[in-house]
Amino acid sequence: MVSKLDQIFVLLKHWIVGFLPHVLQPAAGVLLSVVCIIGVFPALFAISVLLERKGLGRMQNRYGPNRVGPYGILQPVADGIKALTKEDIVPTAADHVVHFIAPVSMVAVVFMGFAVLPMGRNMTLVHMDAALLFYFAMGASTEVSVFMAGWSSRNKYSLLGAMRAVAQMISYEVPLLLSSVAVVMATGSLSLDNIVEVQNNYTFGLPHWYIFTPWGLAGFVLYAIAATAETNRSPFDLPEGESELVAGYFTEYSGFKFAEFFLAEYVGMLSISGLGATLFLGGWSAPFAFLQFVPSWIWFFSKVMLSICVMIWLRGTLPRLRQDQLMNFAWKFVIPFTLLNLVDVVVWRFMGEGWARWIVCSAILVIAYVAMARIGMRNRKIAPRSYRYAE
Amino acid sequence: MLGEGILKGLAETARNFAGSFVSKERLTTVEYPEERLPLPEASRNFPFLVYDGPNWEKGLRCVACQICEKECPPKCIYIEKSKDKKPDFVGKPQIYPAKFDIDISVCMSCQICVEVCPFEAIKMDTEFELSTDDRFGGLLLDRKQLARSNEYYHTIHPTEASQVDAKLAEEKAKAEAKAKTDAAAKAKAAADAAAKAAAAPPKAPEGGTGTPTPAAAKPRDTEPKQAAPEKPSDPAKAASQAEPKGEPKTGGD
Amino acid sequence: MKNRDTTSGHALEDWNRPPVFETEGEGELLEVSMGPHHPSTHGVFRMDVALDGERVVKLKPVFGYLHRNHEQIGQSSSYLASMPYTDRLDYFCSLSNNWAYALAVEKLVGQAVPERAEYIRVITAELTRVQNHASAIGFLIQEMGASGTPLMYAFREREKILDLFESLTGSRMMCNYMRFGGCRVDPSPAWLDATRKVVAGLPQFVDEFENLLSGNEILMARTQGVGVLRPELAVNAGITGPMLRGSGVNYDIRKVDHYGIYDRFKFRVPLGDHGDIFDRYMVRILEMRESIKILEQALKEVPAGPIMDPKAKIRGFRPKPGEAYGRIEAPKGELGFYLISDGSPNPYRYRVRPPSLINLTVLEDMCLGHNVADVVLIFGSVDIVLGEVDR
Question: To the nearest whole angstrom, how far is the Cα of C66 from the nearest Cα of chain B?
């Protein structure tokens, strides 16, 4: 019974596909899964948009939207209707074809990443040996769309904003990949299914998730920073900040196209959280051995939504970093740290089982962090200050 | 320096988030218009004219002295005096404002008109939901729209209204006492004069001394029904002319 | 129509076009006009900025969009009628403006003020200072991009103070409370108790604020070393208020002029050392704490007595010919009123010394060499209100 609930979607798919002739069955199966993904993730997008507005509101001592529907749950519907019925303004000087393709391509590309995420036991759409590689290839394609958006507007401010955004995304691709490489080195495989299988073992009821290892924790934090920067979320959202000079690469977009960019950003957030959950948090495996009766897909989606909540929390608390500070942070702090993390994984592997490797690996990371933080702050002369009073 | 400032900030936000479900202090939204906060007693919005008794025209305390018009900073009050005198709430004939317009789109709610009025005739209302779709005359309130009863004044500013009532009752009592001694003196003088040859016709304003008596019979009335302010009767008595002109010199207000 | 010259020598049609800066060296400068419609200019204010890449080369503030002829109206109304107009100068701090004007007129006629009125004046002025500094910091962080969380906390406390003002004066912001010779309304014991309760909750709020902000590394990275104002320049330009004290100059009019009864209270004046945005921010927080100290002391010893000098005249006020300059330490700086009387009921000359305007004159010097993102922050740290700048 429990395993039936766990596999309920797989069983449903096989049942539906069974009605079709044998020749069409593989294609129909894939098509059905694709339709499910395209249906589920925009629904999650609607939920996360609502969660963000209400969560930010509660952090700021106010209700979020609560007029449209009970507790405001129909707010995304209202937003969607508004976006669809707005006039679609395209500047005459703009390059119309590129202007149209940019948001569409971004949305299309961002959904491709879901093809390789294991959303439950046996619930991966495509089983690839190099799934992680495919995912990152798709993820990097979003940058092209951003640049297309900025370029096609023929507006020097949008172009500046697009260039900044692309620079930021490219800089943070490197730590994103390097922190995942640490996981690959520990597992020995690029396939996301394998990575989850390895983490699905339990010792004394506690799981083998990579986040519970020193290099995994560091890797997760670095991955989180890079993911926040990749999706242009606060505190790295200078390209789309409203109080800056350039209003961003989507200044010239209105109505539905703007909604598409918005959709692409949030689905990108969901996708990258999904990958983070798979790599570091054990994918669809349960946190304790005795909790395995809960279906695996519930665990996966809970982890994804938890990551979204953390991103919303960060957005509500932290001010923005300036562009050059952002880039400094990426190249001078995060990337060296990810490289150190790789060394840490190697040490972990080659020290074999036992408690010694925990201490050594943690020590390496902590000492390096403190040293780099001190040096970084001293170079930029940033320090807490004390104040005197006049006499 | 190691990121603990950021963590402290995150903890603070989380505390506010959790607290917003539990305590009222952390969720301070008032869902207007379903919930309204009660306004403090002293709050003020736009002026209104007070009248005593049931009839707003008869009981209007304003005597069109035009002090408020002169002192109003943005000059939003427009008063026209009447040509005749009309009996007021107590029956005393006095002039009244034929027109009293306040343009509340200009009024800045500064309350100076209330401060300088010597007759306690204009006070501040607390109504703020006054939007209208009539661009031209909707926010120009005339005499009828501005008149509110003394009972209404008591509901919106109870302490102030009681103080005003007490002050007016006190002045009335003083004026009555003075009127009584004057009447007694006059009666004595009239008796003396009558004792001599043909007496001059009694002064017309004496009719006024008759009417305060039934009102004086209930001096402790807590009902806010009271006579029109007695002040205009003093210059009227002194001058006994038909138009008490302009402002009584209240330089030391 | 084409050649209508104004006193500044430019044709009238050119006033709205950003100026063309002459270029020095190769490359052209990017001229941008920030405002008057801008999410972070604190009102209708414009800055013509010339950028070389990302650095500011020239900056010209353009204001006057909110000019309402305040001084002209003051010269054609009576002294009492100007009092409600002073509320609207710096509309955040109406009670301070009232006090400055009342001080000037009282100097002109030599009017004494009873004790109780002095205490109530100090209490209301310090409450105004607390809520002004809290809002100023909130707006500064909002521009930094923290999506308004500190602003909401500041406004939560500000609401409590505004409720106090409403129950005392009748209006939350446009208080019109001081008169020449005292205050208009006598506060009841219930009001004093309510004030004590609010003041008792303020230290905890400032602690919460500091927890959220002062140790935040991102805040420090964005504000330390940015927008430095040297003390000599500050003194020469006539800067006053927290900007001056942030640069290290010890000048607080409460201690210099000994106006009111400030001599009876023990409080200190915080000073900064570097003159950057972080120093001004910290000086404001420390001044909030000092104001809370003054409030606690004042609320303990409010004497009984008349609230207004019984011999003071309100109507028919004709001061003898003469002149007077009354100034106070408003939350933004030195607010002064200069009055010349010629014996008539209206002043012959009525002049306001607006602290925000004079503090803005050094905006260019502070912004040279910084990025555009920093210009927004530096402008926020000057803490201006357009009602005062333009009058």
Answer: 17
